[in-house]
UniProtKB/TrEMBL annotation:
UniProt entry keywords in alphabetical sequence: Methyltransferase, S-adenosyl-L-methionine, Transferase
Biological source species: Alosa alosa
Entry's Gene Ontology cellular component terms: protein-containing complex
Annotated family: Belongs to the class I-like SAM-binding methyltransferase superfamily. EEF2KMT family.
S-adenosyl-L-methionine in keyword set: yes
Residues of the FAM86 N-terminal domain: 19-107
Pfam families (alphabetical): FAM86 (PF14904), Methyltransf_16 (PF10294)
Protein name: FAM86 N-terminal domain-containing protein
GO molecular function, one term: methyltransferase activity
Residues that span the membrane, as ranges: none
GO annotation terms (biological process): methylation
Keyword Methyltransferase among UniProt keywords: yes
Amino acid sequence: METTISSSNFADDASQVKDIVSIFRVQFLAMCRLNTLPWSLLEAELTNGRSSDLILDILNQTCLHTVCLQHPPSVKYRRLFLQQLIKMHESTTTEPLDELYDALSEVLSLEEKSTCYKSYFLPSGGTVSLTESQAVISEGTTGLVTWEAALYLTEWALENPQMFSGRTLLELGSGVGLTGIAICRSCKPRKYVFSDFHPRVLQKLRTNVNLNSHDLSDVSVYVEELDWAEVSEDRLIDIDANTVIAADVVYDPDIVDCLVSLLGRVLKCSTTSGQPDVYIASTIRNPETYSFFKKQLANAGVKHSITGPTTQIFPYNRFSTIELIKLYL
């Protein structure tokens, strides 16, 4: 009996392969945990007879991608990735793929650095590439890496560009700069003030803003040191922010009172266009700390409503509880 395969079957198969390659590209360049990459999907495709061509497509869209060549993930990450890719290839064919071994040989010759690059693809096109510390805590701060709440806040911002278009934004605790750079690239604010306090974070932040500056020419961009406890009313008035945002700033109960005091002053600091909009995104690692934050907001007469993105844009751990709130008096 002859089996007939329709053209739609080929189209579906081609689409699935394209999706697998795209997932590898997005997750690899963002340095997602290797065990979260779609290895099982790849294994299924290899079992169906697709081997060298598919492996080569994945190699070209990861280690040999232009973004990776310019702003590579860590040496260790690339080494482990290539070793797993080679293992999967060897499990389904006896023919070696020279490009794989050449790529691994090159990576093995490199020295590891304390920093690496993570890159994120924007829906509007292009990427945001950031230099980050490989250690979660480095040089006495957690501000040298991108945290999940920053990705969550960025997703919401990209869904709601009208909330930022033509406005002046102040970001508290900007860290390595993902949210601000993405907003400047996609939401067309008039002015964006990145801020942080730790000297090394500010240095890294300036590096990343400069790294992506070719796409920020239409926005007035500033990177400033801002001490939440010391910033004056005059300075807040001078910034004249229509919108104030922050991500992952509620992590230490010792700084909650200082943060709440600042947010209260920001809300009372009317700008030329009225009371500013304030949004805070938080990964709730310690429910007690977050509850204390909300309690102190209420004690200061600050109300809140919960919002958040509806579309998944970036690859990150979605098992964490993340909340985005809008503050108002």
